[in-house]
Amino acid sequence: MTDTPGATRRTQKDPGLPLPGREGEEVAFERTVPARTDRLTGRSRDRIRAIDVLYEADARGRAVREVLEDRIARTAAQSPLPQWSRELVSLYAQHAEEIDEQLATHSRDWPLQRMPAVDRAILRLGAAEVVHGPEEPDTPRGVIVGEYTKIAEVLSTEGSPRFVNGLLQRLLDMRSMLS
Question: 8 or 155, which is more confident?
Answer without folding.
Answer: 155
